[in-house]
Design brief:
- 34% of the residues lie in helices and 12% in strands.
- The relative contact order is 0.14.
- Helix 3 crosses helix 6.
- It has a 5-stranded mixed β-sheet with strand order 2-1-5-3-4, with helices on one face.
- It is built from 6 helices and 5 strands.
- By secondary structure, it is α+β, with helices and mostly antiparallel strands.
- The protein is globular, with a radius of gyration of 19 Å.
- The N terminus is likely disordered.
- It has 2 domains: 75 residues, Beta-grasp domain (Ubiquitin-like (UB roll)), CATH 3.10.20; 84 residues, [2Fe-2S]-binding domain (DNA polymerase, domain 1), CATH 1.10.150.
- Bound molecules: FE2/S2 (inorganic) cluster (FES) (2 copies).
- The site of one FE2/S2 (inorganic) cluster (FES) has 10 residues, from loops.
Length: 179
């Protein structure tokens, strides 16, 4: 019986990275500037200065690094930069300034009951998760909102206010589309 032959897996990398970030096509030379282990979160922050997303845990446990990739909310610390090759990325910087979710959070930024943000550290992640939800389900129920936001942590404990803000944003959207 002949001995088994172990073949070494060939790692194929694209010659460079190309991705669309906030509507702009971006190209990077993978070999020189982006290590194979670089995450999408680090790429966005360090190469493109898109610092809205935060990387508190870097292990998929807090949601603060959430961006939208091809229409879906993703934890950018759990996506390698090379995996984003050829994909469309939307970060909080790419939202229009009058985005209804940003508006709803801003309107609930005063301290007290219903506050959707205090320190604001978690806010970009919540906003992007909520954006992906409302793009998919324009009028979500409270439980759908809670389910969608269940991977996002707010250390200031603004959960009730955040749910209210997302509900409010969906009402703003509904009013705008009824006009
Ligand atoms: S930094 Fe990505 S989930 Fe916490
Ligand atoms: S507002 Fe401070 S962590 Fe959420």
């Amino acid at each position: 019986m002949s001995p088994s032959v172990t073949t070494q897996e060939t790692v194929v990398r694209p010659p460079g990275l190309q991705l669309t970030i906030n509507g702009q096509i971006c190209r990077l030379d993978t070999g020189s500037s982006v290590a194979p282990t670089t995450t999408l979160a680090s790429l966005l922050r360090e190469h493109f200065a898109l610092t809205g997303l935060k990387i508190p845990c870097d292990q998929g446990a807090c949601g603060a690094c959430t961006v939208i990739m091809d229409g879906k909310a993703v934890l950018s610390c759990m996506v390698l930069a090379v995996e984003a090759h050829g994909h469309e990325i939307l970060t909080i910087e790419g939202l229009p300034s009058d985005d209804c979710i940003v508006k709803a959070f801003a309107e609930q930024s005063e301290p007290g009951y219903g506050t959707a943000l205090q320190c604001g550290f978690c806010t970009p992640g919540f906003v992007m998760t909520a954006r992906a939800l409302l793009d998919r389900v324009p009028s979500p129920t409270v439980s759908e909102i809670k389910e969608a936001l269940s991977g996002n942590i707010c250390r200031c404990g603004c959960y009730a206010g955040i749910v209210q803000a997302v509900l409010h944003a969906s009402e703003i959207m509904a009013k705008a589309s009824a006009r």
